[in-house]
Amino acid sequence: MLIPESTTLETRVLLLAPIGNDASVTKRLLESAGIAGFCCADMEELLSEFKRGCAALLIAEEALGDVSLRRLSHALLAQPSWSDVPVIIVSTRAESSAPVHKRLTRLSPAGNIAILERPFRPLTVMNAVQVAVRARQRQFQVRALMLERERILADLERNVERRTEELRDTNSQLEEFVYSIAHDLRAPLRSMQGFASLLVEQYSDLLPEEGKNYAKKIFRSAEAMDAITLDLLSYGKLARSEIVLGPVRVEVAWTAAVFQCEKLIEEKEAKVEAVEPLPIVHAQTATLTQVLANLLNNALKFSRLGEPPRICFHAEEQGEFVRLWIEDNGIGIPCQYLDRIFRVFERLNGSKYQGTGIGLSIVRKGVERMGGKVGVVSEVGQGSRFWIDLRKCPGESRSHASRI
Ligand code: ADP
Fold it and tell me: pLDDT grade, residue 118 (50/70/90)?
């Protein structure tokens, strides 16, 4: 079997003993115990071989002048997190000479240093090298684990990206599908509505009361279904259409939203207030207007019996974003539904309040397409506080909104 070069490199001990034949003697000694040795001529060669891979360094203290010591120190400190190469320094004077001792201890913070005092028996050096080699093998195991972990993480990331892309595709295909169905349903629905009302208007003499009631029910059901298809169409349009973002004065979008809900405001004798000043945000006027109109419409609709709605609209700066709040004094929302209500067709009060269950999905889609977020804070009976976060327009001054 061919042993990869890196494996052989990583099992060898690098030897640096420039004076005499210590290096070759030690090399032979190690080889007799099955450990490969590699003699280096100087610190430069030792450090370049160290980069290629080794199990340990065995260095004679005489080879460690000030410059070499510094270079070795740097190389040891520059090791990757898994590596702490064992370094055995063979010294004659480490204990007896204070300056030598001081110099060698300078190395200690840089690495895994052991000092072997001469004279020593061959067994002592063999022992020290074997312990070092074994410790080094553990380090290579840690490296292998780390590499494996990185590989798994990279795979996982790739998988998540691929899945997200697939989901995005499926989602947009579904949105496309919903859009085309909603579009095609409108024509037959309108003829159902038309014929049902013709039945009531032109054949009322011929129809008994029960028949007229049935025709009215057909008309009302077709009307409700038309409202759903219309909402699905605006949801689909919002999901598919290109949105160009730019500076939008929130006051303008809010005024337009209030105008759209005027009839309901009057009917409910609601008090709607906007707290000035209102900011300028990074958005699209038509989408922001639709989002605010849907939230305002809900705030008006889900009011408590016998209590006119009080609605407050205000803004709050949050770093790069602006949070727009629409607060009402309505029926509130149980906390376990605060997330769910933003999904298509999720309705909590179906029997008492009319609706399609698509309004908040439109809100979420619209806000997300403008790069923002939406959420709600609420408790049953305590009103609801819907918020949307949109990016602030840098350098734009705040405008002033009127109280309504
Ligand atoms: P719809 O209003 O047509 O029912 P939405 O998607 O707009 O559908 O809202 C989903 C549900 O969230 C509503 O049916 C209602 O139960 C709840 N909801 C939304 N806005 C409010 C609000 N301001 N106060 C209380 N409940 C709300």
Answer: confident
Rounded CA separation 63/71 (Å): 12
Distance (Å, whole) CA 399 – CA 401: 7
What H or E segment, with its residue span, contains residue 388? strand 384-391
Tell me the pLDDT band of 241, cut-offs 50, 70 and 90: confident
| Both structure tokens of 290 | 């639709």
Whether the CB of 326 sits within 6 Å of ligand 1: no
Strands 373-378 and 384-391: antiparallel
Taking CA atoms only, the protein residue closest to ligand 1 atom 18 is 298
The first and second tokens of residue 225, run together, are: 């279904």
Residue 3's pLDDT is 44
Q: Are 400 and 277 in contact (CB under 8 A)?
A: yes
Taking phi first (over 0 means left), then psi (-120 to 50 degrees means alpha), and beta for anything else, what does residue 54 get?
beta
Closest approach atom of ligand 1 to CA 358: 6
Beta-strand relationship, 56-60 and 280-283? unpaired
* Residue 63 DSSP label: G
Candidate of 356, 360, 380 to mutate for ligand 1, largest count of ligand atoms within 8 Å of Cβ: 360
What value does the mean pLDDT take over residues 224-230?
Answer: 87
* Cα 335 to chain centroid, rounded: 25
User: For strand 271-274 and strand 310-318, is the pairing parallel, antiparallel, or unpaired?
Assistant: parallel
3-state DSSP assignment of residue 326? strand
How large is the average pLDDT for residues 211-231? 89
